[in-house]
């Protein structure tokens, strides 16, 4: 983009506005996703208590960074569960099946457009 400014294709102000929009759009999505963790912890005091206890124990041992980075820790499980219950993108990007597919006995013809409803798969699954 810097080369586009140098070539006169866009102004420096347009470049800064684009960067600003990109930065804050990403921050908004990330903050929104992380905030659901707090909502779910507030709704489940038992989970909150266990998490607080594990974090305090790791901190007392001087292992807080390792605990937070451990993908099998309780805090990681809480973040994953929050993401399952409130996915950042409820639907996938629209796609088309390149070839015919058999999905659990249902034939999806080649070229069929589809999207995946992650919210329905993860939350509203009543099977």
3D structure, described in words:
60% of the residues lie in helices and 8% in strands. By secondary structure, the protein is mostly helical. The strands form 2 sheets. A two-stranded antiparallel sheet has the order 1-4. A two-stranded antiparallel ribbon has the order 2-3. β2 and β3 form a beta hairpin. α2 crosses α5. The N and C termini lie far apart (49 Å).
Q: Widest sheet: strand order?
A: 1-4
Taken in chain order, the helices and strands follow as HHHHHEEEEH
Largest sheet: 2 strands, antiparallel
For the terminal residues, how far apart are their CA atoms? Answer: 49 Å
Structural class: mainly alpha
Beta-strand fraction estimate: 5-15%
Compute the CA-based radius of gyration.
22 Å
Discrete helix count: 6
- The tally of strands reads 4
List low-confidence stretches.
none
- Overall 3D geometry? flat
Helix content: 55-70%
Quote the average pLDDT.
89
Write the layout of secondary structure elements.
Elements: H1 2-6, H2 12-43, H3 45-60, H4 64-69, H5 74-85, E1 95-96, E2 101-103, E3 106-108, E4 113-114, H6 118-122
Antiparallel strand pairs: 1-4, 2-3
Helix pairs in contact: 2-5
């Amino acid at each position: 983009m810097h080369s586009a400014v140098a070539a006169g294709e866009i102004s420096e102000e347009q470049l800064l506005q684009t960067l600003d929009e990109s930065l804050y759009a990403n921050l908004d999505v990330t903050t929104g996703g992380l905030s659901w963790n707090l909502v779910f912890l507030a709704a489940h005091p038992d989970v909150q208590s266990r998490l607080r206890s594990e974090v305090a124990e790791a901190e007392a041992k001087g292992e807080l960074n390792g605990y937070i980075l451990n993908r099998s820790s309780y805090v990681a499980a809480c973040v994953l569960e929050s993401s399952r219950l409130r996915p950042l993108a409820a639907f996938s990007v629209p796609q088309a099946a390149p070839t015919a597919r058999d999905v659990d006995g249902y034939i999806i013809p080649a070229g069929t457009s589809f999207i995946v409803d992650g919210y329905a798969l993860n939350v509203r699954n009543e099977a």
